[in-house]
Write a structure and sequence with these properties.
Helices cover about 85% and strands about 0% of the residues. By secondary structure, the chain is mainly alpha-helical. The two termini are about 25 Å apart. The model has no long low-confidence stretch (mean pLDDT about 90).
Length: about 90
Amino acid sequence: MKRESQKKIINRFRRIEGQIRGLEKMVENEAPCLDILTQVSAVTAAVKKAGTEVIHVYIEQCLAETSGKPEREKTQKMDEFRKAIARYIDMV
């Protein structure tokens, strides 16, 4: 993964980590359930965006690397990608 993409994704995960810590404090401080659910929704959306960014990076960088490679290797990479996308879709 290119350094620029890596930094962007890491920053997203750090923001998510902060959101999770905020959720923990909300629960500890007995915040209203609706407020907690609103924040859970925000975290879920942030995780989805991070996953989408990883997908974009994979398409741009990893699949592009298969150019000129044997067909079997390309097929293997695409199969791996399809499986990962299926797991991601099941999550969201």
